[in-house]
Design a protein that fits this description.
This protein is α/β, with parallel strands linked by helices. It is built from 5 helices and 6 strands. The protein has a 6-stranded mixed sheet with strand order 1-2-3-4-5-6. Helix 2 (60-70) links the parallel strand 3 (50-55) and strand 4. The longest helix has 12 residues, at 5-16.
């Protein structure tokens, strides 16, 4: 389905802009570099909250660790995996819950929320502000 990570990222970005979808983002950007690393996707919700997403084709553990770092600046943090590699991540749901990271996939042209993240109170507001400014530029 996806040979390269950027294909998964671009499919997500395109799908997340759909008005008929439940996981809709007003604006997205990719490869957001910041103090603690680089985030695959950042997005802005209609109500002005920042979402960070780590996409991986295989290694859910690495994605989870990166997504956990993103809770330092994002209101919500998710891992995005193709459907073919979801099973091990779903079997380790407790690890996601412990870190307050959600899990997403894309199947049949739809973003599916496997489990939700709860809202975070970002504790590095400087990075939050940088991301929000980047997303507010037209």
């Amino acid at each position: 389905m996806f040979r390269e990570e950027y294909q998964l990222v671009e499919k997500f970005r395109k799908t997340s802009k759909s008005k008929s979808h439940s996981f809709q983002l007003k604006k997205t950007d990719v490869e957001f570099s910041h103090l603690t690393g680089r985030t695959d996707i950042i997005g802005l919700t209609d109500d002005g909250l920042l979402i960070a997403i780590e996409a991986k084709l295989k290694n859910w553990k690495s994605a989870l660790n990166q997504a956990y770092k993103n809770t330092s600046f994002a209101h919500y943090s998710y891992v995005l995996l193709p459907p073919t590699v979801l099973k091990p991540a779903v079997q380790n749901k407790d690890e996601f819950i412990k870190r307050n990271v959600g899990l997403l996939t894309i199947e049949k042209g739809e973003i599916q929320i496997i489990f939700n993240a709860e809202i975070n109170a970002p504790f590095i507001p400087r990075i939050t502000n940088e991301a929000m400014e980047l997303l507010s530029i037209d």
